[in-house]
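Homework help thread (please don't just give me the answer)

Our assignment gives two proteins as sequence + C-alpha cell strings and asks us to describe the second one. The first is just a warm-up. Here they are:
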Amino acid sequence: WRMHGAAITLATELAQLPWTPDLIVATDMLDVATFKALLPQEFQQVNIALYFHENQLAYPWSPAATAEEISRDKQYGFINYTSALAADAVLFSSAYNQSSFCHTLPSFLSGFPDHQNAQTVDRIVRKSTVLPVGLDLKRLELPHSERSTKPTVLWNHRWEHDKNPEDFFTALYALSEENLDFDLIVLGKSYSSQPAVFEAARKRLSPHIVHWGYAESLDEYRQLLHRSTVAPVTSNQDFFGISALEAVYCGAQPLWPNRLAFPEHFNETAHLYDSSDQFYLKLKSILDSAEPEVNPLYKKQLEVYEWRNCIHNYDAQLKIISALRE
C-alpha cells in the first residue's frame, strides 16, 4: 500500500510546507513518478534522490505464491523502474543491490509485449551509485559484557520466508541430533503469517533455547547479542544485512552465504559458505571449537558504516545531487 498510496499523501503534505527544500530524498517504497507529477509547480525544480534499501526485481517470492501470481504481478518492480527513471539520482545500499536491479531490468522489460524501452536502462545506470547504509553501532556497546562460555547460536532477523529459516533450523536439528552442546537465541519480529518452521523449531530445539522472541528493549537486545558466539545467516534476500552486522559488531562470529551483499563487508572470505552442506560443516566446526576465533578486524572494518564516519560521504553526494540540472 505504501508503494501505491504514499505518493499522494506525501505530495499533499509537501505542498503545505512554508518553505521549499533544497533536495527531496525518497526511498524505493515511494512511487516517485506519481509523486513528482502531483507536486505543486514551485517544487517541480527540486531534485529527487531515490535511495534503494532493497529492490522489487530481486526480492524473492513467497513459497506460497502461485506461478500465475508471479507471472502476473509485476507492478512493484515496475514502480521501482519508473521511480528510477523519474529521479534525478539513484542510490543503492550495496553493490549487490545496484547490480541485481540494473542487470535484471533488461529481461524484466523484455517481458512486456511492445515499446519495451530498453534504452532507458542505460539512463538509470548512468545516474546510479552505491551509498552504503549508515549505522548507529555504538549504541550496541556494553561497558561490561561477558560472552557465553558455551557455544551460542544467534538468529536476529525477521521471521519471514525471505530470511530462509528452514536452512538455519535444519542445520541445528542435525547438530542437536549429533549431541552437540550449544545454546540458541532466536530474536526478531514475528508475524501472523510467519513460516511454520519457527513453531516447529521452538518445540524441537527447546533444550537448547535460552531466549525466544522479540527483545522488548535495546538493553535486552544488545545483552543477547553480546552473549552470542556465532551468528549464521541463511537469507535468500539481504540487500545490506544490518542485523547480521550488528551481531558481528557485538562479537559473534559470522557465518554468511557467499552471495547477496555479504561478500562486500569484509576483505577476507573465511566466514563465507557456498552450499547448504558447507554451511552445516562450518557451523559444526565452530560449535566444536572450545573458543571460536573471531577476527578482530571484523569490528574495525564495520566502523566504516558508523554515521560519524560515513555522514560526510552522504553530505557530499546529496550536495552534488541537489545542484544537478538536466
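The one we have to describe:
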Amino acid sequence: METQDRDRLADPLPLALDLIRCRSVTPHDAGAMAVLERALKALGFTCTRLPFDEGGARIENLYARRGTSGPNFCFAGHTDVVPPGDESLWQYPPFEARIADGMLFGRGAADMKSAIAAFVAAVARLDRAGGSQGSISLLITGDEEGPAVDGTVRVLAWLEGRGERIDHCIVGEPTSVFSAGDTVKNGRRGSLTGYLTVTGVQGHVGYPERARNPIPGMAAVLTRLSSRRLDEGTEAFQPSNLEVTTVDTGNPATNVIPAEVRATFNIRFNTQQTSEGLEAWIREETERGLEPHGLKGTLRFVRGAQPFLTPKSGFTALLSEAIEGVTGSKPEFSTTGGTSDARFIHRHCPVAEIGLAGTTMHKTDECVRLADIEQITRIYEAILRHYFSTQGRLA
C-alpha cells in the first residue's frame, strides 16, 4: 500500500463526494461500486463483484476483505439511493455533491454514502496507526432501497456457500438522532403488509337494493383491526402497531356504488408477535367484520421482515465504550424505526447499526454536517481499535 493512498483515503470527504456523484438510484449502479472498489484495492482489500438478477434487474454487489485469519469484522451498507423526486425543488442538484455552510448536500449524503466513505477512512487511519490482526471486510449492496432480493441476502448465501464467516458486523445506516453516534440500533421490529379486497355488487346509488356496497364492510373490518392494541411492547421494543396506508375503489363516479374496494395496511411488530399469528388474527377479524354485510373478502400478505434483537453483551458494551470515548456520551440503544439489511445479517453474526443523523434521509436537500462525517469516522476507527484489541473475543 502506498503511503499517499493511505493518507488520501484517511479523509472521508473526497470519497463521499465521488460516491454521491454516482446517480445510483435502485437498481442502477452508475459506477458507484467501481469508485468504492478502487479505494478499497488501494488499501489492500481483495474485492469480489457479485452481480445478481433473480429479481429481474441486474444488481451490483461488492464483498471486499483484507486478511485471511479471524476474527472477521464486517462493515455493511448500500450504495443505492432513493429517487430524488422533483430536482427543481433541491437547493443544489442532488447528484452534484455540493458543500455549503459546513454541510454536504446530495442524495445519499446521509443514507448512506458518507458512512461508507467514513468506514474506508477509518481503515486507512487504523493502518496509519499500525494496522490490526485479523480481517476486515465490507459487504456493500446496490439493492437495499429496492426489493432486497438480489443484495445482502444473496451475498450472505454466497459467503456461507464458500465457508466464509463474519464474526461481528456494523451496518452504517443513518441511525442517529441529533449527532453521529448518539444512537445505536441493536434490533428492529418486523414488518407485515396486508392487502384486502372486498367484493360487492355494482349498481346505481338511487337503487341500493339492486347493489351491494362493499365499503361499509371494509370499514367494519378496518375498524376492528385498528381498534385492537396488539401488545404493550417490551423492554427492548415499542408496542406493535397496525396502520392503514390506503383505501381505494378506483371509482370516479358519484352516482355508482362500486363493485369492490381495496385496502392496504402494514404492521410493525415486536418479538411478542409472529407473522403467522398476526395473519390468522387478521383473517378471523375480516370474516367477522364482513359477515353482517353479506360480503366476502380476499387477503394477501407480504412478510417484509422478522423482528430481531442483538442483546446486551460484550459486543454492545464495546460499541458503547468506543462511542463514548469519541463523543463523551454513552449512546442510546434503540429498536425503533424501519428495517435495514441488518435483518438478514443477524442470522449470521451479532450486528448493530451505527451511522449519521437520519433527519434528512429520503428528503429533498438531503444533507449531513461535515463535522458529523468526521465524528462517525473517528467512531468507526475507535470501534476497530477496541475490537481488534480483544481479538473479537466478546461474551
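TA reply:
I won't write it for you, but here's a hint about the kind of observation we're looking for: Residues 266 and 356 are 27 Å apart (CA to CA).
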